[in-house]
Structures
1.
Amino acid sequence: MSHILVCGGAGYIGSHLVRHLLDRGHRVTVFDNLSTGHRAAIGSATLVEGDMLDPRALEQAFAHAPMDAVVHFAALSIVADSVRDPERYRRNNVDGTVNLVRAMRQAGVRRLVFSSSAAVYGHASGEWINEDAQRRPINPYGASKAMAEDVLAEACRDGGMAVAALRYFNAAGAHPSGVIGESHQPETHLIPNVLRVSAGVDTGPVQIFGRDYPTADGTCIRDYVHVDDLADAHRCALEWLEDRDGFYPFNLGSGQGFSVLEVLEAACRVTGRKIRSVDAPRRSGDPHRLVASITRARQVLGWQPRYSDLDTLIDTAWGWHRAPRF
């Protein structure tokens, strides 16, 4: 049994990892300022309220009990907000990571799994994006994740740290129990917005941003990965890092892409309901296709997505959106 500190563990992906670790007998402490997370999402884990920009609060989290490793989810993550206030994103996502590295070194903790993003790639070309693709973020959010990766890579070069940077594509789905799921305000992701319309939470219609992309049906293609598969990847990374030093990036996705219209059709099929949609202009900066190569995560970490087929993603998310707990 290990004791894991999960920074940002009351959020969407973090809370699924917390449940995943607790189910496997690990001790978990969550460090979260609850600005976007939910106290009810962390189950029996210990909560230490605090902010990544407060070094003293981080020191207190590590002083709570000896830690074996850290998982770092704590970040601002809405692209449009990052464009409006890039300095806030740099400060929170980059300076907060610097503070965490210092606190880990002071506490003698060396293993870290970092929640990164495919946004570090920007407009990457090719059918599948691998970890060797050049990082060219096109918005301040992606840039802040790339800068945080650089902070962690430098900490590894200085010696004594082992970091896995997990670059998510599109997280989706919910815990099969329906106890926890995706609950953002505002909600900016396609699948929950489609299901909120289907559930009558939003009046709709669903907006389809652009139908003139170079894809089979003219809408953007994205790679969706189930949140429980992401949780399992974090566990695999924690175990793999145990006897290593250095910085290691891994893509996490399903390895297949679905268009906006395919997502909408699947949601109608799974829910048994018609979902109204309306065409809208393209959004600036939207690439036509973003799909992960997950070969490295499969071969190196031994990770295999199990729940990331489109119908399972939507079915578990639908279970949550019909009766959200928070």
2.
Amino acid sequence: MPPPSPPSLPELPPPADVLAFGPHPDDVEFCAGGFMLAMRHRGYRCVIVDLTRGEAGSRGTPASRAAETAAASVKLGLVARENLGLPDTALEVTAAMTAPVTAAIRRWRPRLVVGPCPFDLHPDHVAAAHLVKRAYYAATIGKAQGGGLPAHRPTALIHYFGHQEPAPSFVVDVTDVWAEKLEVVSCYASQLGLDGAKGPLTNLTSPEFLARYETRFQYWGSRIGTGYGEPFFTERMLALGDPLKALTARDGMVR
């Protein structure tokens, strides 16, 4: 008898250049929306995978969050967006939760993986950061659980900042896309308290939130001599082909 045929693999979408993970819908937009827009404007294929549906959020519903996420995804110009349906407020660094994150990396085969920073006040953000880090490595191991998909080795993993901001590895200039980013963020009207629905007061619904939010990214822009900047952390060394060019690009910085 002939040997059994190997199981057929599912048809995969075209690879993404940038694959960003969010613990909840809106995390990528609020923390790294400018970066995603800047990458899309440079012609890169960008995808977001949300780990949860944000069903435990103080405001909004899973249905309203899904509608807001769809609108934000259009404004971001994503080629795709997925939700893994993991439990909100209950993310844990386990093999069972790592496997679908690994499968997402193998399915989209990105060059760059973007995840939350492991330093954060929100337990879901911390767990998500470690899940992404584990999956980033597991995706390269052929026998690791990951939806039965072939192994894939991305080029790099970087982390965006949430509640806390340790010393960044680099800051991305998002001045040219700042107005677009605010349009993307405004899609999450339920979270900002702009949908007219009654609900508890949160940090995002305070009258001062948007002003503080803008000041935060103006600060990081000032550190690199631009209007607005988004900080990122990475554990790998960054190579500079022309250090002088990279350093002189900061001439407008307030010293």
3.
Amino acid sequence: MAICQAEDADGSLVMALPLAQQLKQRILSERQLTATIGIASNKLLAKIASDHKKPDGLTVITDQEKVLFLRPLPVRTLYGVGKVTEQTLNKVGIATIGDLQDYPGDLRALVGSFGPKLKQFAFGEDDRPLEIGDEIKSISGEETFLNDTDDRKVLRACLKEQAADISARLKHKRLGAHTVQVKVRYGDFTTLTRQITIETPVTEASDVYRLGCFLLGRNKLVSRPLRLLGLGVASLREPSGQQLVLL
């Protein structure tokens, strides 16, 4: 559970601490469950704090401490860093967020257009707006490759990882998806998206992955090496648990 305080002052984060303690105690007394809560000034840090010291932790990351707090953590901790990106960074000696903070080169040479944003994340900076409402319209993920590739093994591994992440987020929100979409970008930066709509919403990673592969194959999107591959879902509803049907 992440608590994101909009104010930048560290004092406001400390003020949220008693509320978080009360919330943990209430969950324990009413549901007999432990909870891990993270408190920070933005979405990135609040999520990292909420994953810290599971299954029964309470972590505050202040703006004053954020850079040092992040340094020893693996790069995979950062939002947007999946298995493929992690492997790319590891190949040049970037294993921790501290390594990212100290890296003197241009990260765009490694992870494409995600480079500048990744550098900001490494220092705990995140300007993504906080979504107050409960309605989520879509869930997606994408990977930019170090070298353009049409290696099916690499692409399948990337797609499987994205499908697993999407499935986990769908289940966490208790949602299913009626629409699955793939996104590809080629070496000349031409970008294409293709989607399919299904009658019964999907939640399982295997179904999301299978539909992603279907879209790539049906539309012959891997006719040349890819610079980027993305997978997403939309038209989110409560899942029914029935057999999916293609429209």
